[in-house]
């Protein structure tokens, strides 16, 4: 069953529509009367919607689903769920309930679907949430994900664009899982690389989120389909600029090797087309450039915190998320939005 | 020369197939890869550039692009040719991007019959220029030009074969009941039309 070849085509967050196309459509949607309780919605390019119910409770809603990016259905279920749950953590929330979203071919073995949903269900439980229902559609290709509802105290919401000048930027998972899955699709990825990537993609951002909750984090997002640079651009939101130090960014070594072999996704190139104009690379290797544009399935949290808080936070964070690293800093707005320096 | 068919393949397969063909050349030579989308063209171009091969690409139709990669001795020569090729698709450096917009099936006001002949002459003349436009957009009554037995189909097909994008507004085709009658180019929408107009260095309207 794990060898079902039709299963995995071009999956995960590489299947996302390009940011450029999407914003053109969203900008033109009719807008109804503004509800003041909707704290975060379409207007911002944030990870999830946040709606305030009372002085101390807001609900966080998100939905994420995609086609498989690995051959094993159980692992795919875990990855899809980890990825969907992540948006709640990126908003500073706690997971409460989740609904399954399923597209599945009628002709395919139902045991495969069972495995996918088992993986998803396990992750919802690990997140401390309850699976409360779902919806399934007969479709030509497999797709799976979750609609997740969480809660957050309105004063603890982590908007992605709340970064401030002088903040340092911290990333909690290594980059490169998109390229590794891409290499795997053509039989070029090593077993070790794939197992590292799968381990990363099935690790909930819960542990990082619980840790950073104790610090005055400013802006926070999770790195997914638009790649590190695409999501970083959304965080800066035209207000500030930043310096990133390529040698400080956690990456899977294997991904650099595969990038040098040009095992690159279409989505990575779309990300490059979208964000390249805002980025200046200073003597950065080609492979590293590609990794910075690489679409991440179930990537880590990327957040900013005042410099003075960074050391204490990092000491705590490293205990639960050893790969976490300070990757750069927020600066005053300059002509170049994102400058990537080779070394710190 | 080795020809690689990567139509219908998703990235990175076009690059993988092309690299395999380059290896098979075992030295100098040319690999010509057909793909069906622009992103694949960009990924192949990136691979060739980073590897130091000469590369050029050409748009055959909206679903077919040809990427030609030259390895070894004649690399230099191809690189020179590249700047002279009018149909070179990817890096249009320094060249003005001309977009033509046609909104009716005649040109100018006064005599409609005359206007139809004028438009036919206009389209012919556009096709004879040294620098072809990157795109010709057809909307409202303009879609009469790309459909049925329009007398301008041959000129448009010839330009399309040289890499000019011929795009007709889908809503307009639908309005005139011509959706099934489109004879040249592809269907587009208003977002795309706006984007192409805004992206043009020169917008020509007859």
Describe what you observe in this structure:
- The complex is a heterodimer of chains A (344) and B (206).
- Chain A contains 11 helices and 13 strands.
- Chain A has 344 residues and is of the alpha+beta class.
- Chain A folds into 2 domains: 5-156, 60s Ribosomal Protein L30, Chain: A (2-Layer Sandwich), CATH 3.30.1330.10; 167-341, Phosphoribosyl-aminoimidazole Synthetase, Chain A, domain 2.
- In chain A, the strands form 2 sheets. A 7-stranded mixed sheet of chain A has the order 8-11-7-12-9-13-10, with helices on both faces. In chain A, strands 1-2-3-6-4-5 form a 6-stranded mixed sheet, with helices on one face.
- In chain B, 38% of the residues lie in helices and 23% in strands.
- Chain B folds into 2 domains: 2-84, TusA-like domain (Translation Initiation Factor IF3), CATH 3.30.110; 98-204, Hypothetical Protein Ychn, Chain: A, CATH 3.40.1260.
- A 5-stranded parallel sheet of chain B has the order 8-7-6-5-9. A 4-stranded mixed sheet of chain B has the order 1-2-4-3.
- In chain B, strand 6 (135-138), helix 5 (153-161) and strand 7 form a beta-alpha-beta unit.
- At the A-B interface, helix 4 and helix 9 of A face helix 1 and helix 2 of B.
């Amino acid at each position: 069953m794990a060898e079902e070849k039709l299963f995995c085509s071009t999956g995960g967050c590489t299947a996302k529509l390009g940011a450029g196309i999407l914003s053109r459509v969203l900008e033109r949607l009719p807008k109804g009367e503004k509800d003041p309780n909707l704290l975060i919605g379409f207007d911002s390019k944030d990870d999830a919607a946040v709606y305030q119910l009372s002085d101390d409770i807001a609900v966080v809603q998100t939905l994420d689903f995609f086609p498989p990016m690995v051959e094993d259905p159980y692992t795919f279920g875990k990855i899809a769920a980890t990825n969907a749950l992540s948006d709640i953590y990126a908003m500073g929330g706690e997971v409460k309930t989740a609904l399954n979203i399923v597209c599945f071919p009628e002709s395919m073995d139902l045991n495969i679907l069972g495995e996918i949903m088992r993986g998803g269900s396990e992750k919802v439980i690990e997140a401390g949430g309850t699976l409360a229902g779902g919806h399934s559609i007969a479709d030509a290709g497999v797709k799976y994900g979750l609609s997740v509802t969480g809660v957050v105290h309105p004063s603890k919401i982590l908007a992605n664009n709340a970064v401030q000048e002088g903040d340092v930027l911290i990333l909690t998972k290594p980059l490169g899982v998109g390229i590794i899955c891409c290499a795997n699709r053509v039989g070029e990825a090593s077993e070790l690389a794939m197992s590292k990537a799968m381990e990363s993609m099935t690790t909930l951002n819960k542990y990082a989120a619980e840790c950073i909750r104790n610090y005055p984090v400013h802006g926070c997002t999770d790195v997914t389909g638009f790649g590190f640079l695409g999501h970083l651009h959304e965080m800066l939101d035209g207000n500030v600029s930043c310096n990133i130090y390529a040698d400080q960014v956690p990456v899977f070594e294997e991904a650099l090797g595969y990038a040098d072999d040009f095992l690159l996704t279409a989505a990575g190139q779309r990300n490059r087309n979208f964000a390249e104009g805002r980025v200046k690379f200073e003597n950065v290797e080609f492979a590293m450039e590609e990794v910075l544009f690489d679409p991440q399935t179930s990537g880590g949290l990327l957040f900013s915190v005042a410099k003075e808080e960074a050391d204490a936070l990092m000491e705590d964070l490293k205990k639960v998320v050893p790969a976490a690293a300070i990757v750069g800093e927020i600066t005053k707005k300059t002509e170049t939005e994102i400058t990537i320096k080779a070394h710190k | 020369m080795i020809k690689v068919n990567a139509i219908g393949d998703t990235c990175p397969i076009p690059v993988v197939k092309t690299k395999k063909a380059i290896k098979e050349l075992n030295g100098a030579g040319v690999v010509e890869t057909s793909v069906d989308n622009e992103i694949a063209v960009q990924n192949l171009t990136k691979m060739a550039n980073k590897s130091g091969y000469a590369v050029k690409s050409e748009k055959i139709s909206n679903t077919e692009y040809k990427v030609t990669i030259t390895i070894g001795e004649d690399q230099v020569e191809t690189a020179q040719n590249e700047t002279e090729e009018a149909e070179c698709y990817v890096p249009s450096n320094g060249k003005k991007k001309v977009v033509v917009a046609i909104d009716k099936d005649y040109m100018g006001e006064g005599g409609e019959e005359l206007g139809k002949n004028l438009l036919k002459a206009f389209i012919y003349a556009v096709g004879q220029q040294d620098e072809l436009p990157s795109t010709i957009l057809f909307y409202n009554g303009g879609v009469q030009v790309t459909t049925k037995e329009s007398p301008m189909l041959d000129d448009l097909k010839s330009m399309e074969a040289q890499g000019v994008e011929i795009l007709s507004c889908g809503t307009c085709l639908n309005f005139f009941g011509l959706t099934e009658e489109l004879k040249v180019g592809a269907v587009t929408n208003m977002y795309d039309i706006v984007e192409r107009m805004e992206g043009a260095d020169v917008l020509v309207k007859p």
